[in-house]
C-alpha cells in the first residue's frame, strides 16, 4: 500500500505506539487524526506536531465512538485509513476476591469491542474510497497467552481472529486489513506493568520507533500479518512446539502472579 497522501485516524494516538506511528505517518506526508480519552495528552501531541488533528474519544464507550465517527465523516471525508491501536493491559490474579468484573469488562470493551464498533461503522465509508486500510494492533500474546493477563490475552486473540475474518470478507474490495502483533515494546504500558508487579526490567523490549518502522515496511509491502522481532519467534515456536512456547511464557507469569 502506498503510505503517502492518506488520511489516517489513530485511536490511542496521543502516546506510545500510536503517537510514534502518527509521527512517522506525518513524515511520510499523510494527514493524521489522533484520538484518546485524555485531552491534555492529545494537546501535548499536537504541540509537538501541529498538523496532527485531535479528537477526544473513549473507544470503550459506544456513544463516544458514535460521536467520533460522525465528526470524522463530516470533517474528514477523505479518511481512508483506520488504525485501531488504543488498548489497556491489566494483571489479574483471578483467585483474589478483589478481582473486579467491571474493570475486566472495560478491558474487553477497550481492546476488542472498540475496534469492532469503529471498524464496522467505518466500513461503508472505507469501501467508497479508492484505496483504504485498517491496521489492528494486537499482540504476540494473541498466539501464546501470559496467564497473569487473562483478559488482555483473550482480547488480543479476539482481535487476531477478527482481523482474519474481516480480511477474508473484504477480499477484492478497496479495503486492506493489516494486523501488527508486537511483543514487548518500551512504552508507558510496559512501565506501568513493571511498576504494578514491582519488577524493574521484565525483559528485552523493542523501541516504539523500531516497531513503527517495521510496521510501515510491512504495510508498504502488503504484509497483512506483521510480526516484529520476538513476536515472529514466538509465533514459529508456538507453531512447531506449542508446549515449549506456553511453558516459556508461563514461567514469567508465575513470577508475576506471586506479586499480585
Ligand atoms: N507496549 C507493549 O509492550 C505492547 C505489546 C503488544 C501490544 N501492545 C498494544 O499496543 C497498543 C498501544 O499500546 P502502548 O504500548 O502504546 O500503550 P500506551 O503507551 O499505554 O498507549 C495506549 C494509548 O491508548 C489510549 N487509550 C487507552 N484506553 C483508551 C480508550 N478507552 N479510548 C481511547 N484511547 C484509549 C491511551 O490514551 P488515553 O489514556 O488518553 O485514553 C494511550 O494513548 C495497545 O493496543 C497495546 O495492547 C503493546
Automatic annotation (TrEMBL):
Keyword set, alphabetical order: Oxidoreductase
Gene Ontology CC: one annotated term: membrane
Cross-referenced InterPro entries: NAD(P)-bd_dom_sf, Sc_DH/Rdtase_CS, SDR_fam
Coiled-coil residue spans: none
GO MF term (any one): oxidoreductase activity
Superkingdom of source: Bacteria
Protein family per UniProt: Belongs to the short-chain dehydrogenases/reductases (SDR) family.
Protein name as catalogued: SDR family NAD(P)-dependent oxidoreductase
Amino acid at each position: 500500500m502506498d503510505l503517502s497522501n492518506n488520511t489516517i485516524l489513530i485511536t490511542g494516538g496521543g502516546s506510545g505506539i500510536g503517537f510514534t506511528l502518527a509521527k512517522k505517518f506525518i513524515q511520510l506526508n499523510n494527514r493524521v487524526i489522533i484520538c484518546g480519552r485524555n485531552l491534555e495528552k492529545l494537546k501535548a501531541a499536537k504541540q509537538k506536531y501541529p498538523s496532527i488533528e485531535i479528537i477526544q474519544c473513549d473507544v470503550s464507550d459506544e456513544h463516544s465512538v458514535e460521536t467520533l465517527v460522525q465528526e470524522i465523516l463530516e470533517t474528514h471525508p477523505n479518511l481512508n485509513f483506520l488504525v485501531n491501536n488504543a488498548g489497556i493491559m491489566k494483571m489479574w490474579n483471578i483467585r483474589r476476591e478483589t478481582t473486579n468484573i467491571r474493570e475486566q469488562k472495560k478491558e474487553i470493551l477497550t481492546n476488542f469491542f472498540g475496534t469492532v464498533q469503529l471498524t464496522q461503522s467505518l466500513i461503508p465509508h472505507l469501501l467508497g474510497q479508492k484505496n483504504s486500510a485498517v491496521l489492528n494492533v494486537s499482540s504476540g500474546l494473541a498466539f501464546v497467552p501470559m496467564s497473569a493477563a487473562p483478559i488482555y490475552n483473550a482480547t488480543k486473540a479476539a482481535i487476531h481472529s477478527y482481523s482474519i475474518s474481516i480480511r477474508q470478507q473484504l477480499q477484492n474490495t478497496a479495503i486492506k486489513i493489516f494486523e501488527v502483533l508486537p511483543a514487548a515494546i518500551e512504552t508507558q504500558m510496559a512501565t506501568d506493568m513493571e511498576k504494578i508487579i514491582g519488577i524493574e526490567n521484565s525483559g528485552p523490549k523493542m523501541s516504539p520507533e523500531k516497531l513503527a518502522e517495521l510496521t510501515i515496511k510491512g504495510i508498504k509491502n502488503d504484509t497483512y500479518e506483521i510480526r516484529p522481532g520476538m513476536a515472529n519467534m514466538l509465533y514459529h515456536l508456538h507453531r512447531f512446539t506449542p508446549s515449549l512456547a506456553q511453558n516459556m511464557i508461563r514461567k514469567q507469569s508465575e513470577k508475576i502472579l506471586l506479586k499480585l
